[in-house]
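Form 7-S
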Amino acid sequence: MVTGTAEQWNRGVFLAIRTLMHFIAAFTFWYAIYYDFTFVRFPHAVTGYVQFGGKFKFLTFLDAIIQASYFTLCLLNDIFGTNEVSPRKSSSLRQLKDYVFGAFAWPLALNVGVSFWTLMAIDRELVLPKALDAYFPTWLNHVMHTNIVIFIVLELFTTFRQYPSRKSALTGLSIFMLAYLVWIHIIKHYAGVWVYPVLNVLEFGQRIVFFIVILLFCLGLYFVGEFLNNKIWASELRQIKSKRNK
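Output:
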């Protein structure tokens, strides 16, 4: 009886902490989106920034919206749904949450975080010119490019999910990434500038290779997430498989 009570207490504390994490993540990303959209302004005379497309031309901003939406789904599922390994009936909310994680939240968070900090290490002028420091706060930079990775990795380890089918997830992710590539070319056509400075130093052929590498890298991150999820939650997934085979 005492052991059972202790286990229930520990589980209750864990669930409360996880729910709190989802709330903090959702609040942090929504506030960052609000702050960026409302207060961050890049004067063209100083930075060469073009207003066409607004904040929505940056993958970082789009990803922040995805992360905020995903952790809001997590919070709603904590309150109104279930995170049980094998519930009697999987709700649409739970299914949507699991799909968004595998198809968008995980690969895009890692793509944005790894790509950004890699380019920053090579030459920050290729991705976030120093001239922007006066207008883009350091805390906001870390929320957009560091916290996204921290929170999504914590989510991978603390919440069980059934990964979506490869076909549906890769289709959704591919459509999103290809649509974004089309979008930045539309911006280039009408505004006359590339969204990211790194594209200015690449020749036509190099840009094609760059786009292909980024696309393949993002798609590859789906498989990384699927592999890690299957390893971390192996016993739970076996439990579900065994139940289905009965």
